[in-house]
Amino acid sequence: MCGIVGCILKDKEKPVAPILLECVENLDYRGYDSVGIATFDGSIHVKKDKGKIPEVDEKLNLADMPGNFGIAHVRWPSTGVPSKINAHPQLDQAGTIAVVHNGSLKNYDELKGELIADGFKFKSTTDTEVIPHLIRKYMNEGFDLEHAFRKTIERLDGSYAIAVICEEENNKILATRYQSPLKIGVSDDAYFISSDIPAIIDYTRKIILPAEGEMIILDESGVKVHDENGNEIEKETVLIPWTAQMANKGEHPYFMIKEILEQPDAVEFTLDEMDNIRKIVDDLDNIKNICFVACGTSYHASLSGKYLIQHLAKIKTDVVLASEFKYTADTLDEDTLVIFISQSGETLDSMNALRIAKETSPTLAIVNNIGSSMTEEAKYTIITQAGPEKGVAATKTYIAQLTAIYLFAGLLAKDDDLIEELHKVPNYIREVLEKSEEIEVLSKRYSFAEDLFYLGRGFSYPIALEGALKLKEISLIHAEGYASGELKHGPLALINHRVPVIVILPPGSDYEETMVNLEEVKARKAIILSICAEGDGKAECKSRDVFTINPNVSEMVAPLVYTVPLQLLAYYVTLEKGHDPDKPENLAKVITV
Ligand code: AGP
Fold first, then answer.
1. What is the atom index within ligand 1 of the atom nearest the CA of 591?
2. What does each C-alpha distance from 375 to 340, 482, 513 come to in angstroms?
3. Backbone angles phi, psi at 373, to 5 degrees
4. Is the CB of 179 under 6 A from ligand 1?
5. CA 49 to chain CA mean position, Å
6. How far apart are the C-alpha atoms of 479 and 467, rounded to whole Å?
7. pLDDT at 512 over 90
8. What percentage of the chain reaches a pLDDT higher than 70?
9. Whole-number pLDDT of residue 388
């Protein structure tokens, strides 16, 4: 999705453009097709174009712009094709007001019509361009920048995080947000606004979290936040426990592999949240039903939560895709805990569902991004301690989500054995990672495939879904995750000697039935790769390949461990196919539309 940044340096002589460039580079994981910067040094300077940051930088030398303050943007199009003219910043007619915007405006057509009737001329086909024109219209009517911006915001219907600079009031950046993320950063030398913390983490860990509708004013003397009536309000500054090193690739070629390797730590640090989770569980004594709501990988973590909570705590648990939530919302009541699982804490489908759910039910958000919108709106919050994740494919945040969900379920069911078992998971994952070369070799044997199936049963069904999603989103190979008993009800027709089938076979009560399903695909000559326990002679003899896991990993905790070789497989197959695993085509890390 789009990302915005603004920075004002206290030192008037120092150029801000190199810093803005570095910050938007740090936002590139959100997904984008164009980039732009506006700075001020007596007049507004703009450089922008369609393309990836290195290409545009090579052409325009983005760091070479005068002025000690400015705004920057990476664009993921929602309205208007990717083009130079549609790239942000968007300007008013005279080029004296520059705006960057993340979000989308539902009523831009109507506003555009009104502005055109008033004589304003539009250059782009974006929704954003109405914003600088509206600000100019109100400034023409005699309002100062802050009032003109406020009146503009009142006219907008949609989601937005917006930053503005203006030639007449040339010492400040104004910004605000509604249903789109925005953070304020404070350092000794500069003040920032940014869509995401990783963009500015190289400069500061001191963050202020503005609420929806608040107006942020950055100038050389500091940060002011005004409420909706223009009154200045005190805001707390929080120290983010993330470091710049955590948000950088370091010696690794891609974020995805760095993040896969960080998974033992993600589990350990999330286990440290046990006391916080216990407080929430203690407060939820009367809960009769649970409903998980999430998208994508977070949905798969939720599905594991359903199996676990029903098994251990015997509480009826549903899982609903956030985009489908409104169709089941009528069945909620105050005895149903609605749990939102999200890496970003910003996904719009989940946010919309949260806003509906909180009307009737207690809500819990399990998110990785500190200060994200879901943490503001949910009654209870658990922060997973995976640190910043930049690869579009969620890996360590997924394992951290599972850790938090398993802790929650274990505490809810008062199951000390599970909690003890969870503390062994980091080492089980380390053992898998130590054998990642085996997966690298296997990837060469599977990258030819055009279609793959992943099969699992019970606790292993979500593993199959997640393995397939990882592969398809980054390698662009078609993959399906199936409950292994369901295959015979249709998809078995697609199995033949060209189709690899990956079977998730942890030891436990589902083993024999899954083995029957393995036989079914073997009879149709499928190429079988089993993920099974060390010493599983049966699986070894019936599969073309096996990847083995510590036999002490039970089927119940298998999602936390058996998923890891599938992440590695997706990663290495993607490299084998020559794609970038961090930035798959057409996908963004944070989906706020
Ligand atoms: C994960 O690999 C995907 N990129 C995607 O499915 C993601 O999990 C989904 O968009 C939900 O995001 P969230 O966890 O930030 O809400």
1. 10
2. 10, 33, 41
3. -60, -40
4. no
5. 25
6. 9
7. yes
8. 100
9. 92
Estimate the share of the chain in helix, then strand, then coil, as percent rounded to the nearest 5: 40, 25, 35
Q: Which two tokens stand for residue 531?
A: 């993920």
For tokens 């640190």, the residue is 387
Mutate to test the pocket of ligand 1, among 320, 591, 593 (most ligand atoms within 8 A of CB): 591
Tokens 């030639």 sit at which residue? 167
Q: How confident is the model at residue 71 (pLDDT cuts 50, 70, 90)?
A: very high
The neighbour count for residue 229, using CB atoms within 10 Å, is 6
- 293 CA to centre of ligand 1 in angstroms: 12
| Site to substitute for ligand 1 among 295, 339, 369, 383, most atoms within 8 A of C-beta | 295
Distance of alpha carbon 388 from alpha carbon 245, whole angstroms:
10
Q: Is 84 left (phi over 0), alpha (psi -120 to 50) or beta?
A: alpha
As a whole number of Å, the CA-based R_g of the chain is 25
Residue 280, pLDDT > 80, answer yes
For residues 450-469, one letter each, b for 16 or more C-beta atoms within 10 angstroms of the residue's C-beta and e for the rest, the string is: eebbbbbbbbbbbbbbbbbb
The Cα 418–Cα 373 span in angstroms is 31
Residue 63 near residue 57, CB atoms below 8 Å: yes
143, 182, 89: which is closest to 369 by C-alpha? 182
Residue in the block written with tokens 């990717």: 82
Burial of residue 221, with CB atoms counted within 10 A of its CB: 0-12 exposed, 13-18 middle, 19 or more buried: exposed
pLDDT digits (tens, 9 = 90+) for 554-567: 999 999 999 999 99
Give nearest CA residue, ligand 1 atom 7.
296
- Does the C-beta of 350 come closer than 6 Å to ligand 1? yes
Say if ligand 1 is within 6 A of residue 591 CB.
yes
Mapping DSSP onto H, E and C, the string for 158-189 reads: EEEEEEEEECCCCCEEEEEEEECCCEEEECCC
Please check whether residue 112 is in contact with residue 122, taking contact to mean a CB–CB distance below 8 angstroms. yes
Write the DSSP assignment of 357-402 as a string of letters: HTTTS-EEEEESSTT-HHHHHSSEEEE-------SSS--HHHHHHH
